[in-house]
Amino acid sequence: MQLPRRIVVYITLVITAGAVIAGYCFWRYPIGGDWSDWLLIGAFAAMTLLTDRYRLQIAPRTNIHLDTIPLFAAVLIFDPAEAVLIAAVGRFFGRLGPRIVPLEHGFNLMQTVVYVGAGALLLNAFAPTPWMPGGLASWLGLLVTVLVMYSLNALLVMGIVALHARTSPIALWRASQPLETIVQGVIYCLGLLTALVVVPHNWAVLLIALPTIAVFITLDRTLKMEAQQRKLSEENAAQAADLRKQATALREAYAVLEDALDAKNQMLQNVSHELRTPLVPITGFAEALREGLCGDLTAEQLTAVDHIFRHATHMAQMVNDLLALQTLDRQHLQLAEVKVADLLQDCITTFSRRAASVGIELRSECAADVPPLRGDAMRLEEVISNLLDNAIKFSPYGGEIVLKAVGLDDKSVQISVSDQGIGIPAEELPKIYRRFYQVDGSSTRKFGGQGMGLAIAKRIVEIHGGKITATSQVGKGSTFYVVLPTELVADAPAAVSFD
Hints:
This protein is of the alpha+beta class. Helices cover 63% and strands 9% of the residues. The protein has a 5-stranded mixed β-sheet, with helices on one face. It has a two-stranded antiparallel ribbon with strand order 1-3. The longest helix is centred in the middle third of the chain and has 86 residues, at 205-290. It starts with a helix and ends in a 14-residue tail after the last strand.
C-alpha cells in the first residue's frame, strides 16, 4: 500500500531521531562489564522480547503493553547505551515475523529507542545508575524520566495515527485519558519495583526472568494450539457450509427429478391410453377378417391379416404392461388365500406344452409344509409366468427348468425358478429389473422381448411386501428367488418406482 508523503516524512524523522539518540548513547556511555553484566542484560532483553512478541496489554482498550515494565526497569538499572541495546534487541526480535512490514518495523524499533534513550539520558543527568533513592535529585530524575518516557511513547504513536486521521495528536491523547494514565502508573510502579529488587541482588532477576520465560513458552504453545483449533474450526465450518450448499442443491435436484418423473409417468400413461384406443378396433377387425365375417380371403390376404393381428396383439400387450407399471399398487390387488401348490401347478400346466415343444423338461417341487399366502392369485401367477417365460426363452434344447416352493423360518414362502440357460453376467444382475432393459441390447440380439417382464414381476412382488433376487453363472444358468410373506405387512410399499 502506498503511504501518504506526510506519513513517510514523519516515519523518517522518527527513525533519524532514534538513530541519533542511539549513536549518542553508545558514544557517551560505552558498553562494558563482565559476563554477569551481560547475563543481566540478556535477561532483560529476553523479557522485553517475549512481552513484545505477544503484545500483552495490562488492560483492555489501551495501547500500553507489558514490555514497558522491563524497559523502564532497564533504564533504572543500566547505563543509557545498555538500556538502548536492551530496547533495540527486544523490539527488533519481538516484532520479527513472516508478515513483517519493514517500514512499520523500523518505526516501532526507533520509536522505542527514542523514548527509552531519552528517558535514560535524562535520568543520568539527575542521578547515576543503577538508580537508588538518595535525595531530591534522584526522585526528581525519576519523575522526569517517567513523564518523558510516557509522553514520548504516547505522542509518537498518536502522531502517526493523527496523520492518518488528519487530526491533532493532543486531541487523541486527551481522548484516551484517564484510563491510560492509571494503567501507565501501574506499569511504571512495577518497573520501579523490579529495579529495586534487582539492583541490590542481581541474581533476583532469575525470580522474574525464568517464570516470565516459562509463562511465555507455555503461552506460545497455547496460542499455536488455539490457532490450529481455530483453523480446524474454520475448515469444518467451510465444509459444513459446503455440505449445506450441496444438500440444498440435492434437494432442488430431487424436486426437479420428482417433477420430471411425474411428467414422464403422466406422459407414459397418456401415450399408453392413446395407443390402446386404436389398437382395439385394429385387433377386432383383424380377427373378424380371419374368421371370414367380412367375406372370403385369399391365402395371401389371410397371411397378411395374421401378421396384422399378431403384431397388433403384441403391441396391445406392451401397452397393457406399461399401464400396469404405471398404475399397479396395493389398492389394485384382489386379496384372497392362495395355495402355493395350486399356484405352481397352474403355471406348470400353462407352460408345459411350450416347454415340450422346445425339448425342455419342466417340473415342479412344492414342500408339504408350505403355508398358504394371502395375495392376488392372478398377479402372483403373472410373476411366476414371467420367470418361466424367460427361463424357457434362454434355455437350450434338452435343458431342465425347476419350479420350487419352500417355507422359511420367518413365516414366509420362497418360490424359485431355476434353469440351465445362458446365464447373466454378474455386472448385469442389478440392472435386469429396469423397464425395457435387455442384457443383450443390440439390434441383432438372438432373443426377443421388450424387457418388461422382470420389471412387472418386481413391482408385483414388492407390493405384496416381498422381494425378488437372482443368482446366475454365465453358461450354466440362473435361479430367481421370490420371497413372499404369508400375510401382507401393514407398512409394505403401496407402489414402487423403477429406473
